[in-house]
Structures are given as structure tokens and as C-alpha cells.
Amino acid sequence: MNLELIVFLILAAAANVSAVLMITRKNPVTSALYLVFNFFIIAILYLFLRAQFIAVIQITVYAGAIMVLFLFVIMLLNLGEDKLLKWKLNSTRTIASILGLVLLAEIAYYVMNFTSNSGLSPQSESMGTVESIGKVLYASYLFPFEITSILLLAAVVGAIFLAKRKLEQ
Amino acid sequence: MVPLGYYIGLSAILFTIGVVGVLTLRNAIVIFMSVELMLNSVNLALIAFSAYSGNPAGQILVFFSIAVAAAESAVGLAIIIALFRNKLTVNIDEVNVLKW
Fold first, then answer.
1. pLDDT value of position A17
2. B21 — contact with chain A (CB < 8 Å)?
């Protein structure tokens, strides 16, 4: 058992623990902070896989922008102590948890078939840098990249339209 | 060296935690966070396949997936704000107008 595998197992355990804590906390702010922790661990795993650019994007866009948006909305809604929703076990949630375990078993059955023990591909060493991602992105995937700008514009307009107060109120 | 199956297994566990969160939670904001967790687990699987096969297309797909997730969370949180303004709650059990 080498050092990389030990570090991976520690990070994987931390990711799972933070994810479980995220869905079991009562206060949404605590959940959001556990999710930020989880995103940082996934960013470290991206570095393990030599995807430096995606790791930086993960931290700036996910842990930075998206989670700040979440925290801002939680603050804006200002849920009081009485509005916090406690996690109660009832029949629906028991069935949902059992179905979750069934889903995990189904996925695990297929993951067991990954018997290949080859390591990282030799090309992967230089694949995740900004330079090589940019070369692929602006050569082969230029059209989808430009379409993304329209998507983001639509999201901005939609978010403002949905969140603004109606004029007659 | 970490085998590919370990990354896929971690991705599967994180995805399942996200699914259980969506099915069991009642706070709309935390349900939305669970969806983000599921998106992240799939991104991890994509990056792992990309690195082990030496094909950069997986990383490009994750780049677009993160862009779509940013747009999706902006619109989704705006919907939650509109919901809270009309119903004064984020409890999805109380939002049952369309329930048959």
C-alpha cells in the first residue's frame, strides 16, 4: 500500500463523512459549509488525477461563486429557529433510504467489473494544464464554448426576472 | 497508484448520498445542495475516466458541466426565492398545489 493510496482513502473517507453530515444537519448554513469542505476535497482529488485547471475551476466557481450564492439566499430568507426543519424518520424517508442503498448496490455491482489495474495514462501528465485544455477548447470545442455564453446570459436574465419583486406589489 | 475503480466507487457513494438527500430532506435549499453533490460526483467520475484513458474530452465536458451548474444554481435559487415570497416557507411538504 503506497502513500498515494493511503492519502486517497483518507480524502475519500473525509468526502463521504462531510456529505453525510451535509444531508443530516438541521441548519442549512452548516450544511452549506460541509458542502464547501466536500468541494475542496474533490478539488484535491482532481489534482491527484492531474486535472489542475479543473481543480482551480472547481474551487473558484463551485466553492467560491455557487456556494456564496447559496449562503446569500439562506441569509436572504433568514429562516428563524422555529423554521429550521428537523430531519424526522417516517415511512417515506425509510423507503427512500432503502431505495438509496439498492441504488448503491446496483452501481457497486458494475463498479466491481472494473478489474483493469492500469495506472494513469501517460498523456494525462500534460493533459490538465491550462495550455492543453485551452488548445482543445478553442480548436475542437469552440462552438459549444460560444453557446455557453448564451446559456449564461439566459440564466442571468431568468434569475433576475424570477427573483425581482412584481411591480404592482 | 490508485486503481480507477476506487474513484468510480467514491463517485457512486457520493451520488447515492445525494440521491438519499434529495429523497429524504424537506428544506428546498438543502435539496438543491444535494443536487450539486450529485453533479460533483459525476464530474469526478468523468475526470477519472479522462485521466485513465488519456482523452481530454472528459475534462472539457466537466468544464461545460460546471458552467451549466452555475447557470442552474442561479435560476434554481431565484425560483426558491420566488417560492419563499409566495408561500413564506421552503418546506417542500407544504408546497403541494400540484399534488393530485
1. 96
2. yes
